[in-house]
Each structure stands twice: as C-alpha cells, then as structure tokens.
Amino acid sequence: MNATARPPTFPEPDPVESTYEPRLGETVEDTERKRIGKVMGFEGPYVQLRPVEGGREWDATPEKLRPVPVGDALSPAVANANARSRGEL
Fold first, then answer.
1. What is the residue-wise DSSP string for 37-81?
2. Cβ neighbours of 27 (radius 10 Å)
3. Model-level pTM?
C-alpha cells in the first residue's frame, strides 16, 4: 500500500432539507414529545394534534412532525380500545 494514499472523500450532504407540511386529518409523530397524533387544525405557527385513541389536544411545531404510517398509529389505539372493553380503563 502506498504510504501517501488518501482515503476516498465523499460529498457533504445537501444542507437544504425538504420541508414536511402536515395536512388536516393526517397521522403524525411529534418527535419533540415522542407522541403520535392526528392533525386537527392549525393555529398561528402551531399544529394542533389529538392522540389517535382520543384525548386532549396539544400544540406542536411543524418542524418537529413527521408522517406516520396508519398501521403504526393504530396499535396504541387498538390496545386502548381493548383495555376499555375489558373494563381496565
């Protein structure tokens, strides 16, 4: 091996990221709070989210949201519904 050989260089990632814009009714994850919710509305700079299984809404910043496949979101809701039907909640 040549002592003056340099390792290959790789291009830097593009600093411009695509901005995700949540839509009304969409299921998203609030990565800041680590919660999954459904988009219920928009108020000023915030997005209003409600837990998929129901409950109190909270405000989230759009930059901290990412889309969630519906199947991933249903698991907590199904578990909650099952617990209610068994009288556990």
1. EEEEEEETTEEEEEETT----EEE-GGGEEE--HHHHHHHHHHHH
2. 20
3. 0.63
Structure tokens at 69: 């496949």
Q: Quickly tell me which residue has 């759009």 as its tokens.
A: 62
**Among the listed ranges 8-12, 78-82, 83-87, which one has the minimum average pLDDT value?**
8-12
Helix (H, G, I), strand (E, B) or coil at 85: helix
The two structure tokens encoding residue 81: 């519904």
| Contact by Cβ (8 Å): 45, 31 | no
Are 60 and 46 in contact by the 8 Å Cβ rule? The answer is yes
